[in-house]
């Protein structure tokens, strides 16, 4: 029998380095800051850190525009700090993965500068450059507003950028580009990095000839051209090649490949992460974040029943050897508690109940959980008051675009507040009054609310944070909760969800039940004697709003 790979049993934690911990008072989080907080993450029970970008970057898109893949962003520290951080993780039995942003580079990367200087030379082939004509080469749209093409007067060329104008798409059809990327991965693997989260990795292969996008699909998805790159013709081939040439160390160990795969859907996602496919190990399936018909900019209440239903359905569609990633937040999305509760998110009773329900769902289903910094302390959306407080290029561009299209300031602001990525990017509130920096934070300090800093949450045994910690410990102690069978129980009542987790020998059985509504509802599944590990002292006839229960059942 083959051994279970480590990442199937691991709990991942996403650090947004800019906003985690500042060590030198410049208001920007840094590597020494992260290093100084490793004991907190070990205490929480984290197995693997994922750091959002820390490579040298002009930060047009907060590090997702890399200038040098082998250098550390000056504001975040030095290579020696990075080596110390890797060592610090490994000494505590934790692993660490980095963010590999290679669908595009910054326009300040040497490759792009060389391409500009000599578009006919070898570096011209590193990007998608097209002759300067009156119109952009095709009708594709950028995710960050406007055409996906930027005209470069110095070179009389158009260059493709699916994201910001300073993020130019690399031409993966060029074997030289693929070799450079494999080299970058090997460089970091040799430094001890345990793998990568791979940014928009499903976008790397584009349809030959870059044909126009279909208008209807563009309307439907919101971005014209997407059908020409979201699952491109060479995608699988390039990922398998990178696995072999980049992620596989000389000793045969393979670094974990976690694909960030927006818009991929369940069926296509399987083709990328399926155990037999030899491409990625895990993919993030973003359909979990919004129910069908909703987008991030819509102001609506997310139904926790959908979160459970999405993963139930997903789990029935993968084979028994496949493995899924479980996540509800990241640095690109508002806080989940706020999506569920809306303006009631500051009510401590509801806030705790929803935070705990989310933790329970994420930590008792099969799959690999990814927790985003601050999720574990019950963070909610930041109360921003003015567009001038925001820093994210996507929010700023979108706001300007909406106003230019004639929308009122009020309506445009409401949209930005529903979906802004800056909600999740404010600094982690370590203690009352901050604790992130001694200087002025680069983005508004988080208004956590009384009781919701890390220090206060740690001190309160019933806090969201302590529930995360207990559930993580439980999952580690009882493999039934990590890798055991799952059986969803039909209850016949909307708002009541329940599932069993069972160890292969049947000796261990766990019952999880969640009230996904803000109302008191009847408890449905009768069970004999059980030991309640999370929830009210006894299983009464009804469940409180958003109540979650984890109970150990007698073996059959
Ligand atoms: O915000 C989005 C587009 O409207 C998301 O779809 C997001 O851009 C997408 O998930 C890709 O995200 C990743 O790549 C981006 C970067 O801005 C995000 O922070 C990153 O997570 C470009 O590198």
From TrEMBL:
The lineage of its organism: Bacteria, Bacillati, Actinomycetota, Actinomycetes, Actinomycetales. Belongs to the glycosyl hydrolase 13 family. Keywords: Glycosidase, Hydrolase. It comes from Bowdeniella nasicola. GO terms for biological process: oligosaccharide catabolic process. One of its GO terms (molecular function) is alpha-amylase activity. The keyword Hydrolase applies. PANTHER family: ALPHA-AMYLASE FAMILY MEMBER (PTHR10357), NEUTRAL AND BASIC AMINO ACID TRANSPORT PROTEIN RBAT (PTHR10357:SF179). CDD domains: AmyAc_SI_OligoGlu_DGase. The keyword Hydrolase applies. It comes from the Bacteria. Residues 14-425 form the Glycosyl hydrolase family 13 catalytic domain. This is Oligo-1,6-glucosidase.
């Amino acid at each position: 029998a083959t051994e279970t790979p480590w990442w199937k049993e691991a709990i991942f934690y996403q650090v947004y380095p800019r906003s985690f911990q500042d060590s030198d008072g410049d208001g920007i989080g840094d590597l020494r800051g992260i290093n100084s907080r490793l004991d907190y993450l070990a205490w929480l029970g984290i197995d693997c850190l994922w750091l959002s970008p820390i490579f040298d970057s002009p930060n047009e898109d907060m590090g997702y525009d890399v200038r040098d893949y082998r250098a550390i962003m000056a504001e975040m520290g030095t290579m020696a700090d990075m080596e110390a951080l890797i060592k610090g993780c490994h000494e505590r039995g934790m692993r660490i993965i980095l963010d590999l942003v290679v669908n595009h580079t910054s326009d300040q990367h040497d490759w792009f500068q060389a391409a500009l200087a000599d578009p006919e030379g070898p570096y011209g082939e590193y990007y998608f450059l097209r002759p300067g004509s009156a119109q952009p080469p095709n009708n594709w749209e950028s995710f960050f507003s406007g055409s996906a093409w930027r005209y470069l007067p110095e070179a009389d060329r158009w260059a493709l950028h699916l994201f910001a104008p300073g993020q130019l798409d690399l031409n993966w059809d060029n074997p030289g580009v693929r070799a450079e990327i494999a080299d970058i991965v090997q460089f970091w693997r040799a430094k001890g990095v345990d793998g990568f989260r791979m940014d928009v990795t499903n976008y790397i292969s584009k349809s030959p000839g870059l044909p126009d996008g279909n208008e209807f699909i563009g309307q439907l998805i919101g971005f014209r051209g997407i059908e020409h790159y979201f699952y491109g013709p060479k995608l699988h081939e390039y990922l398998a090649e990178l696995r072999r040439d980049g992620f596989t160390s000389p000793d045969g160990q393979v670094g974990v490949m976690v694909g960030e795969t927006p818009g991929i859907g369940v069926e296509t996602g399987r083709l990328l992460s399926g155990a037999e496919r030899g491409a990625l190990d895990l993919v993030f399936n973003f359909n979990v974040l919004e129910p069908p018909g909703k987008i991030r900019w819509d102001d609506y209440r997310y139904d926790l029943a959908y979160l459970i239903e999405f993963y139930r359905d997903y789990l029935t569609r993968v084979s028994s050897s496949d493995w899924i990633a479980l996540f509800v937040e990241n640095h690109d999305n508002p806080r989940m508690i706020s999506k569920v509760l809306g303006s009631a998110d500051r009510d401590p009773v509801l806030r705790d109940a929803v935070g705990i329900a989310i933790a329970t769902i994420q930590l008792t289903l099969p799959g690999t959980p990814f927790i985003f910094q601050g999720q574990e302390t019950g963070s909610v959306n930041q109360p921003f008051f003015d567009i001038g407080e925001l820093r994210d290029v996507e929010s700023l561009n979108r706001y300007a675009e909406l106003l230019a299209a004639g929308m009122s300031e009020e309506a445009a602001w409401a949209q930005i507040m529903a979906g802004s990525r800056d909600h999740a990017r404010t600094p982690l509130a370590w203690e009352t009054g901050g604790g992130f920096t001694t200087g002025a934070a680069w983005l508004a300090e988080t208004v956590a609310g009384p009781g919701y800093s890390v220090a206060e949450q740690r001190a309160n045994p019933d806090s969201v944070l302590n529930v995360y910690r207990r559930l993580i410990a439980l999952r580690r102690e009882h493999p039934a909760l990590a890798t055991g069978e799952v059986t969803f129980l039909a209850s016949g009542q909307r708002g009541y969800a329940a599932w069993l987790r069972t160890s292969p020998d049947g000796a261990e059985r766990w019952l999880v039940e969640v009230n996904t509504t803000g109302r008191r509802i009847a408890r449905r599944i009768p069970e004999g004697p059980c030991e309640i590990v999370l929830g009210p002292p006894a299983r009464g006839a009804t469940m409180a709003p958003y109540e979650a229960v984890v109970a150990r059942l007698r073996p059959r």
